[in-house]
Design brief:
There is one protein chain. The longest helix is centred in the middle third of the chain and has 32 residues. This protein has 9 helices and no strands. It has a domain of 170 residues: Transmembrane di-heme cytochromes, Chain C (Fumarate Reductase Cytochrome B subunit, Up-down Bundle). The protein is mainly α.
Length: 258
């Protein structure tokens, strides 16, 4: 089972992530959205969303460079594993607390408000709960890392992640004997990759791809006409009602001579 989870399951998860995302965009492009419910409850959404997204983006960047930076490059830059471990614990801990606080706010908002609950589908709630659980596991790994301040646990998963992308057949063996919390954290992370194309998480790709699409590949524009009866005021002068014909000046009333 260990060899399957850390040697085969990563390729299954990445394949579902890539192929499933493309298939969804081709088959149901109008479902490729975040399905925001901001109009129903704005204040709580803003607080939770800022905390959650700021924390998650920091964690994503940290995991990306932390796991995929070659060990020889760290040695060439004279960055000891102990220093990298301490930085990861400090930055990851702060970002994790922020993301978890925001995630719990968003989960409470989605489950406690009857209007938002009525407009949500089961996957919307489930993916938030799974992300919060993943953040809890991630924060729990800090206590394990504190007992391995030399970075030995971190190096195991660096070698594993880089082995997966270099098609190393022995990648699964690098995590043998690692903490169960770390292994559960990685397994749940891979499962989130599997769920990615079937949830609102797909809007993450839009955040990176939308600017390039609008600048390079977009060939037309969609114009939407407002239903507002009166135009908003502009710097050029007061607002005027659109499509309104000018009212003719009143003609003076003359009384015929007697």
């Amino acid at each position: 089972m260990h060899d399957f989870i850390f040697g085969i399951y990563p390729y299954i998860a990445l394949a579902v992530l890539l192929i499933g995302s493309v298939a969804r965009y081709e088959r149901d492009p109008f479902t490729w959205k975040s399905s925001s419910s901001q109009l129903l409850r704005r204040r709580q959404l803003i607080l939770g969303s800022i905390l959650f997204h700021a924390g998650v983006l920091t964690i994503f960047v940290g995991h990306f460079f932390g796991l995929l930076t070659p060990l020889w490059l760290l040695e060439a830059l004279h960055i000891p594993h102990e220093a990298k471990q301490i930085i990861a614990m400090a930055v990851g801990g702060i970002a994790g607390v922020m993301a978890l606080a925001g995630g719990l706010i968003l989960l409470h908002r989605r489950t406690a408000d009857p209007r938002i609950r009525a407009t949500s589908n089961p996957m919307d709630t489930a993916i938030l709960a799974i992300l919060d659980l993943q953040l809890m596991l991630g924060l729990s790994t800090i206590f394990v890392s504190a007992r391995h301040i030399d970075g030995s646990e971190m190096v195991k998963f660096m070698e594993w992640a880089q082995g997966i992308f270099t098609l190393d057949p022995n990648a699964a063996s690098y995590t043998a004997g690692a903490s169960a919390i770390f292994q559960a954290h990685v397994f749940l992370g891979l499962t989130i990759f599997v769920l990615f194309p079937f949830s609102r998480l797909v809007h993450i790709v839009s955040g990176f791809a939308a600017p390039l699409r609008y600048m390079l590949t977009r060939t037309g524009w969609q114009i939407v006409r407002t239903r507002r009866r009166a135009a908003l005021p502009t710097h050029a002068g007061p607002a005027r009602r659109p499509h309104a014909a000018p009212v003719p000046a009143a003609r003076p009333i003359t009384k015929p001579a007697e």
